[in-house]
Write a structure and sequence with these properties.
With 75 residues, this protein is an all-alpha fold. It is 51% helix and 0% strand.
Amino acid sequence: MRTIQINIPDSVEMSDYDFSMMVAAKLYEEQKLSTGQAAEIVGLSKRAFIELLGKYGVSLFSSSVADLHSDIANA
């Protein structure tokens, strides 16, 4: 696992947790991370991460029919 450091201006009023959650949610949305990997970044269980996705504007469900078929096959 890599660690990166990002300098965010003080004018951006956002907790470290919210920033981490936004990054993890976006990477999940872009299919760069699994739910487990994204949850690990934030320090949450997969279930808790999934429950919070909507708050960060990310759907658990893909808009791709091919992804839906793949999800069903892997269920």
